[in-house]
Write a structure and sequence with these properties.
With about 400 residues, this protein is α/β, with parallel strands linked by helices. The protein has three domains: about 70 residues, Arc Repressor Mutant, subunit A, CATH 1.10.10.10; about 120 residues, ATPase, nucleotide binding domain (Nucleotidyltransferase, domain 5), CATH 3.30.420; about 170 residues, Nucleotidyltransferase, domain 5 (2-Layer Sandwich), CATH 3.30.420.40. About 40% of the residues lie in helices and about 20% in strands. The protein contains 14 helices and 16 strands. Strand 12 and strand 13 form a beta hairpin. Helix 1 packs across helix 3 and helix 10 packs across helix 11. It starts with 15 loop residues before the first helix and ends in a 10-residue tail after the last helix. Bound molecules: zinc ion.
Length: about 400
């Protein structure tokens, strides 16, 4: 039972039913494409005439298209419907501590062009550089007209109403406007989101066709920082003031090392890439030395992963330890939220065969029921660019979302 908020509600109008059915049809086509009008009508238990009307509207609005006709056993050839994704483009931007990535891709997240540059810490200069590159990429590919917006993911908390980055411990930003200034300098709508939340969105909207995504799941990103995107009942949890899901800053040791956020013993300080690298190098984790560590050692977490895969014991132990701490954090998530699945994205997932047993053991020790202990945990392949797909989903998922009613 969902309570109607007397302070903030959306009143139903004559168009409400029509709008809901339109969105259901669009999502059914997306899930089952190619699909005929007759099959759609059957799945929705809707009269054929009404279905034809909704499909015509969606075709006219450019949301779906009629594909090549197919021969059936009885010789009739129904027109098959597809969601239009190929010629609708999105500029996806992933701002990370070390580098910023830009991908021009279609609505389904298939890349057309990809480039990256070293992240500039000053927000105004960074936005100028992103805007310059966006314009250049669109011009080079002659696609400015079909780009429907920019999806921007940031390692930090974002106020969705103002588009301001509230706090990004990694970038050192507090209350910075990004959305509106990037929109002004590119002339495109900009949607901005915290990276793990965007990755959860991509799972929800750009997952593989036919693979069911649970209505309750958590996406954990392990990179320069550690964050989570929490989905409950098919909706992202943002919290009262847009900072929900910061599991990376749940303490797992009261006197642990100082995290980037300034507090001691956060999960992130034990499981981020820099934590794994520090462990491998045998130096104490220090948030301030994050940059220096890679510079002085010449190593990244990718090197640790490679060495572990080649059988180097020290690298294997460092990753197992990361897995153990990660498992403790995931057990906490499981006990609090009881998700249907947990997805993990990040470079360390390349060493999944080393991480997984350590994660599983920690969860088994702490989960409160056998069923909770067997929560599916899946690693997202690092080469699938989950954060850029998340940035893409910020723009494209809007077309498929349920209408906000009541
Ligand atoms: Zn922290």
């Amino acid at each position: 039972m969902r309570r109607i908020d007397p302070q903030s509600f959306v009143r139903a109008t004559r168009l409400t039913t029509r709008h809901i059915n339109r969105q259901i049809v669009l999502n059914l086509v997306r899930e089952h494409q190619p699909i005929s009008r007759a099959d759609l009508a059957r799945k929705m238990r809707l009269a054929r005439g009404r279905m034809t009307q909704i499909v015509s509207e969606l075709v006219a609005q450019g949301e779906i298209y009629i594909g090549p006709t197919m021969q059936t056993a009885r010789g009739r050839r129904p027109e098959m419907l597809f969601v239009r994704t190929r010629d609708r483009l999105v500029m996806a931007v992933d701002v990370r501590l070390s580098r910023t990535f830009l991908m021009l891709g279609d609505f389904a997240g298939s890349p057309i062009a990809l480039e990256s540059f070293e992240t500039v810490r000053d927000p105004a200069r960074l936005i100028t550089e992103i805007a310059r590159r966006v314009r250049a990429m669109l011009k080079k590919h002659d696609r400015a007209k079909s780009c429907e917006g920019i999806g921007l993911v940031i390692p930090g908390m974002v106020d969705q109403s103002s588009g301001r980055v509230l706090n990004s411990p990694q970038l050192g930003w507090k209350n910075v406007d990004v959305r509106d200034s990037l929109s002004r300098s590119t002339g495109l709508p900009v949607y901005i989101e915290n990276a793990p939340i965007a990755c959860a969105l991509a799972r929800m909207w750009l997952g593989e066709q036919g693979v069911a995504v649970p209505q309750n799941f958590v996406y954990v990103t392990v990179s320069d920082g550690v964050g989570t995107g929490v989905v409950v009942n098919g909706e992202l949890v943002r919290g009262h003031s847009h900072t929900a899901g910061e599991f990376g800053h749940v303490p797992i040791a009261l006197d642990g090392p100082v995290c980037l956020c300034g507090a001691r013993g956060c999960l992130e300080a034990y499981t981020s890439n820099i934590a794994t690298l520090s462990r491998y190098l045998g130096v104490e984790f220090s948030a301030r030395s994050a940059h220096d560590l890679t510079r002085t050692s010449g190593l990244t977490v990718g090197d640790v992963v490679d060495r572990a895969k080649r059988g180097e014991q020290r690298a294997i132990r460092a990753l197992e330890e990361t897995g153990r701490y990660l498992g403790v954090g995931l057990a906490g998530i499981i006990n609090v939220l009881n998700p249907g699945a947990i997805f993990i994205g990040g470079e360390v997932t390349e060493a999944w065969s080393i991480l997984e047993p350590a994660i599983r053991a920690a969860i088994t020790d702490r989960a409160l029921t056998a069923r909770a202990a067997s929560t599916p945990i899946a690693a997202e392949p690092a080469d699938s660019h989950p954060r850029l797909r998340g940035a893409t989903a910020l723009v494209s998922a809007r077309a498929f979302a349920a209408p906000k009613i009541a």
